[in-house]
Amino acid sequence: MLYAQTTPAEKRRRFRERLASGELLRFPGAFNPLSARLIERKGFDGVYISGAVLSADLGLPDIGLTTLTEVAGRAQQIARMTELPALVDADTGFGEPMNVARTIQTLEDAGLAGAHIEDQVNPKRCGHLDGKTVVDEATALKRIRAAVDARRDPDFLVMARTDIRATAPGAAGLAAAVDRARALVEAGADAIFPEAMRTLAEFEAVRSAVDVPILANMTEFGKSELFSVRQLADVGVNLVIWPVSMLRIAMGATDRALDALISEGHLTGKLDEMQHRAELYELVDYEAYTRFDTSVFNFEVER
After folding, report:
1. Active-site residue among 40, 91, 108, 202?
2. Is 116 among the residues known to form the active site?
3. b/e 118-145 (16+ beta carbons within 10 angstroms → b)
């Protein structure tokens, strides 16, 4: 009932423990608190909170328009609704190194298990679009050092994302990504998020270059092939995210339902695609609230 019973500190501890095991952890993207609870119920390992999703939720493109306050507030709403650890996209840290430090402490206070900071120039752009620009290595390392120095809970995961792969074609781009990944680890990053890797061999090259966990981003319609969990595990990936998938599916279904309303004037043909009222009430744990007030739950829902 209400919010998660597991404390943020305990979520972080368990997350670190499982990452250290070497197994591959699955983090679907939650687009709201209720979807985070469904992700937990389905047996996944954690919840990912995408900057692109948070931007889209506000009707904005993913170009660095959201603020720390907006991201931390929404991320807190999502993280507190699940017993799972939540990893959040913190973009470029919302400013200079001092801003990065404040970002980390704010996200700690919001109950997140970790965050990733990227090396794009601000304003950033979606990691799977062309025309990205990254900062020089010294600036990228300052961001990560600031993040590591600022955290108060040593179990809060500071992940470094690098977008440098896309700045040069072929082997040159991959070599740049490998070199930057190594430097980010030396600066204190607990994990590496190599963005827009194109092949399993590229993930494997990053895996071989660093001795910390690495993340694979399986976003649709992007630069990377959509590899399976088994394929990623076989090349040593430790964490996989599907950042925007659930939002895309939900919006696609909504689009089709609106078309049905226009063409048919009703949604009776869509009932089997909907979450039943009884399933919703079960997911929000409606019945448990009777422990506080029996007048809240005093009815039955027919299935």
Report:
1. 91
2. yes
3. bbbbeebbbbbeeebebbebeebbbbbb
Sheet of strand 25-28, all strands in order from the earlier edge strand to the far edge: 25-28, 239-242, 215-217
Is there a catalytic annotation at residue 91? yes
Three-state SS for 143?
A: helix
Residue given tokens 């979450």 in the structure block: 275
Residue 118 annotated in active site = yes
Q: Which ranges of the chain have pLDDT less than 50?
A: none
Q: Which of 180, 177, 181, 175 is nearest to 196 (CA)?
A: 177
Domains of the chain (ranges; CATH) run: 8-244 (3.20.20.60)
Tokens of 263: 């063409």
In the residue annotation, 89 being an active-site residue is answered as yes
DSSP 265: S
pTM, 2 dp: 0.94
Neighbours of 272 (CB within 10 A): 6
